[in-house]
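Why does residue order matter? Because the sequence determines the fold. Keep that principle in mind as you read this record.
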Amino acid sequence: MKRLYHDIDWLREEFVVKRRTLRSIAAQCGVTKQAVSLYVVRHALVAERVPLYKLYADKEWLEQEYVKNRRTSANIAEECGVHVAVIVYHSRKHNLRRIPYTPEEVRERERVRQNAAYASDPEYRAMKISNTMRWREQHPEEYKAYQRTYGRANYAAHREERRTYQRERHRRRCLTEPGYRERRSAYAREWRRKKRGKPSHPRPDVVE
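Structure:
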């Protein structure tokens, strides 16, 4: 039976492009590390895999990671297994400068970070809830104004989302369910007839 690591394209994708270790590939294929290493050497894939210590010296790679992907020097250094000062040195050597985050991007990144911490860390979640309750007690008027603003925005977004869902649902049923279009048309005609027959502003009876 042909195993995955026998396929040179698959092995190149995993070993060269994704930079997986021999042990990881061997564990997936259910064989020893030496068996995978034999095919790596046979297909000369070792020469195609760029060593990590050469990646950060490459200007194009470092520009892609540091400038375009906006990764930190510490994060790149951790991947390459070097000190952060090495990445800082090469970024300055190639004159790489990142565009600063806008205030909106800073707030969005902080919101994502807090939401992730809130979902995964019970202590952080308890701290946030405690701070929120304390702020509610100290600023009742501001809290009411915030609730009104947030409630209106939330209601408008939910209402539009619900309308979009209902339109799409009715459209699918009209296309797939026999007789649904006719029932919808009859219901709409009945609803319009009742609405026309009912006065829009009923007035109390006038006693003469």
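The two ends are 101 Å apart (CA to CA).
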